Fold this protein.
Amino acid sequence: VGRRPVLLFSVIFILIFGLTVALSVNVTMFSTLRFFEGFCLAGIVLSLYALRIELCPPGHRFMITMVASFIEMSGQFLMPGLAALCRDWQVLQAVIICPFLLMLLYWVIFPESLRWLMATQQFEASKELILQFTHKNRMNTESDIKGVVPELEKEITRRPKKVCIVKVVGTRNLWKNIVVLCVNSLTGYGIHHCFAKSMMGHEAKMAITHNFYADYYTMAGIALASCLAMCPVVGFLGRRGGLLLFMILTALASLLQLGLLNCNLASFSLFMNTLTGMSDSVKDKFSTAFSIVGMFSSHAVGSLSVFFCAEITPTVIRGGGLGLVLASAGFGRLTAPIMELHNQKGYFLHHVIFACCTLICIICILLLPESKNQNLPENIPDGEHYTRQPLLPHKKGEQPLLLTNSELKDYSGLHDSAAVSDGISENTTANGMKSM
């Protein structure tokens, strides 16, 4: 139904459910209302993410997304202060819901995504929106958009063509890209809690003050540092290179923390003997360091997977693709309460499973295309042609492994044959003119 109606629907109902939560009289009522509040919050996150991506030019998409992430981080840093000021949880619930009243103004401020309207062939609505833009910007319709409105008027009779995410099943490359990013987001958000649990456990052993606020700000600070690091890394290495780097860091931190430092290999016997002589406190410090690195890199993996999906998924199904990746991230977060069951007996097994997933993801990331400074795909054929490029550019004179269409024609000799046929036709024409 579009980005704008989903946003308005979600904002209205999160206000209703959020304010009703403050009036809960028992645990059942509280849990049920909180579930629907989170349901509406997911709609807000999804619709705003899609709108941001579709409104920005290619060179500014990542920058605007990171600005939104920093604003989200600022909200996380303010939450404990609000909790300390409000004292009562019912007052706190009302305070954190009231700012959503300002989001009702989005219906007036933000129009529907013109990119989505054009991609789904809603040309009548597109024409009205373009005319609104020209009127607000005081543009001359005849000179500035000459030819656009008449073309839209010709196509107005065509019926809108909306596409369901199920259509991805019939594609060759698009479904593969979405599945890879779903597994990446699940692994990134799932293993993040493994690192956090390990770090908090070692802090307790090291007799550091085990305080809720200290733990909360530690995790929020690591997430902020991860966002800051993503800016230069993604700007220099691109989306795929940055995701690969952070996934490798996550895998290394995970494997080292699982005890690979204590493996008994003959070639490293002297080194291992030194390690076995370490005190438990030193080993705990190493494990805590690996946990911090793992939390740092896994947060970047999860965030980049969502952003990557938003860029390579076509406009007609961008909401569905983003929904799948965000749902996978949510499923990864669901592993956190599972670890709390049965006195954390399954914690080590969870960590081993996610560590294996990181190794699989490293290989799968190489199958993804690079979307840096690329136009957004509009329909499924556009997304299907978003194919993989080499991770490193090939040198001059070196034959690339993956050929483009033009290079493939050159390699197969089609251009040469075409040139020969053109030369033959020109000679024939010239001989005919001479005979005449």
